[in-house]
Structures are given as C-alpha cells and as structure tokens.
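Schema walk-through. Below, the input block comes first and the output block second. Nothing else is stored per chain. Lengths vary across the set, and this one has 476 residues.
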Amino acid sequence: MRPALLLAVLPSLLVAQESVTTLKDQKALAVTIYNDNLALVKDSREVRLPKGESRLAFQEVSAQIRPETALLRNLTHPRDFWVAEQNFDFDLLTPQKLLEKYVGEKVTVVRSVPNESGAGAKEVREEATVLATNNGTVLQFADRIETSVPGRIIFPRVPGNLRARPTLVISLNSGADREQKLELSYLTGGLSWRADYVANLAPDEKTLDLSGWVTLTNQSGAAYPNATLQLVAGDVNRVQPRAERVYAFDGLAAKAAPAPPKMAEESLFEYHLYTLDRPTTLAVNQTKQVALLSASAVPVRKEYLLRGQSYYYSGSYGDLGDKQKVGVFVEFDNKEASRLGMPLPKGIIRVYKRDSEGRAQFVGEDNIDHTPKNELVRLKLGDAFDITARRKQTDYKSLGKQGKFGFVHESAFEIELKNAKKEPVTLTVLEPMPGDWEVLQSSHPCTKAAAGTGKFQVAVPAEGKTTLTYRVRVRW
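--- output ---
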C-alpha cells in the first residue's frame, strides 16, 4: 500500500477501535422510578479507554432507553474528554436477523451426505449467496437456486450493527490511556411502580392496621443488579406521556407480622421522593414488592351514605324506583396523631376484616390519589346488604316564574330507611338540590353541606325503620 493511501486509512482505523463494557465493569447503579412508566438510570462503570478517539460499546442498557436523554460523564479524567456521537443499536442478534443482514452476501452452507462406500457420512461445503429471506430463505449456489436451507449456514462474521444485547455505541475522545470511571445516565420506559395498601379492620371497626407496599415492574429488557432504588411520587409533566400499566398486589398475611422498615421519604421540588434503605435487584420481566410503610391502630370512621339526584327537583316522578343502594364508606386522617402522617402515593387500598373464626376476609377496595400529610383518606368499600332505602315523591307543583327566576318548583319526598342489623345505625342522606333552594319542612334537621347539597342525619333503630320526609322549593 502506498504511504499516502496508508495515511488516509489510518485515522479511520483508529476511530474504529471499539472498547466494550458490560455489567462486570459496573461499580454503582442507581434507579429512580416515576409513576408513569418512566425511570432515570445512573450506571457507573470502570472502563479502560485509549487516549484519543475511540468507540465505546456500552452494553446491557435498557432496551427502552431514550437515546436522546443519554449523558456520559467521565468522573476520573474529565479533561479532554468529550462525546462526538452516540448510536443506540437495538437490532439484536438472532438467527433470522443474522440471515437478513447477509442478503446479497456470500455464506457457506454445510450439509452431510453419505460416503461413497455407504458407511457413515461426510460434510460437503458450498458457497452460496443469500438472495432473500422474506417468508423463507432463497440461496443462489454456483449451479442452482434453492428455496430452503439444505444444511447449516456458516457466517464469516457478525455485522457491526447487530448486537447480542441492547448497546449504546459512543464515539468519544479520552485525554488519557488508563482505567476511568464513567457514569451513563438516561431515561427509559419499561420500569414502573405503584403503591398498594392492605388495611385490616379491627373487630369493632373503630381502628385499622395499614401496610403499604411498593409494586415494581421491570419490562425494560435489562436487569438492574444491586441498585440503589428511589421512587418519585407526584404527577411529573411529560411531553407525550405513555399510558400507565397497573399491576395489583393481592397479598395478605394470615397473621400480623413484625413491622418492616419504612422507606425514607423527603420532599423533592413539588413531589415526594422515597428511598429504599438497601440495594435491590430488578430482574428482567419481574414484578416485586417492597415495604413502604406500616401503621397500627389508626382511628377510622364508618359512614352509611345515601345520595340522591338533582333531577328529582325539576319534575313530577312519583315512586322513584326500587330499593336504592346505601354506600358504605370508611375514612381516616393521615395525621401523626392518627399514627400516620406521611405522604401517601396514589394506589389501591384493600380492606380486610377477620370473621368469627379469625380468618381474614376481603370487604372492599378503593383508589386513593396522592395524599399529602394531614389530609383525609376516604374509601368506598361497597353497598350495605342490611340497610335499604326506598324513595317516593309525594307532591310536586310548578309555581311558574317569580321575579328574576325563570322556573320555580316545589316538591315533597318520603324516604323509607330500613335496618335489618341487630344494632342501630345512622345514615347520611345527601340531596343535590339545584339553583336557589330552600327546605320548607322536614322530619329531620337539614344542613347545607355545600352550595347545592342538603344533608340529613337519620338514626335507624336495630331491625327497624325510619321515614325521612321533607318539602323543598327550588328556583333558577
């Protein structure tokens, strides 16, 4: 080769030098997972880099990495270190992919044929060109074309853009020829978390024990061994957010277990950050739970609620149907005085109560949103079996226009509340009343729960009934 040609080729050969780093070089790993299928990965590795320009194949990154967010830092020798280009090679090595990359190229086909003596077999090698791989393989031999592989195929090499695992290939410049600590940080999809809570009601339903779990799911295509794990609770704004995957945790211990350590919590911007007190491993395609919090004897309040509809007050309806459902709610305060008092990430609270034999039975569940300290947690667990309501409109008249009001209606109602329990109960009846409303008469006191809502508290005796009657005038 002539000297001038050699000088022209030499720089490209130097740039083509490629160092490879895998998990065996990893020195530290930190993963911060957000609520909406997003995670920040910080992967620190010790790699020997040559001085000057080279390429680094950073293997075993997430298959769902967002390459535009990747940032490589040199923590050992940052002087004269820079990144010129980075490419994410996600075309992974498989027999089919390898064959596709060799379309138009020559391969060696090895097949076994019987020996001429009839004893045993021998290998025959032929060179062939791969013509196509669509819906089968087409090979061109020196004297024929075949549409199936008559043996095994030998490839001379693996193409440079075909990797055995997801790889970020980085063209960089290093200021020193030595072992250097590099930190690659990037955002990725495929990692998600949610909070799940298990609550055990006391026999008297006055308190509950609450356990919080974090359910982690790794579908990113990479493993994260011995990672420092942090979770961000809050609604972080993102451009083009992805739909959240929901994974529920249905576990319940048969007996009370020692309280697990809580995750450390701190404020972060307008969110809350939770840190696991020990490293953990997130394997590929794995869902795992880690303890979030534990609280005992949290005071709880139970409520029976019947809610009406605003359309009742704008026309004549008479009997308003069959028995109406009475909802069952429980609520508690997220306060230190109630043995809680920490930000609760959004999730599902599942409530259990033990039967007469001490077996835990599921009694309902509900979603909670992100709940800060000192806020109320309210759960609807279902509808009461033994408490029923029947509503009837006993009178209606339209009073026409009155002054600035275009419509004035007056209605009277009767709500029969029955209780089949062996103990008395108190029901809350909420009536959404439209416009400017006024209760003219009522068998039970009515308070204004909100601008458009009237509230009645009705006591119903054991195995008895109580009838609530009232007359209301609405104007709008």
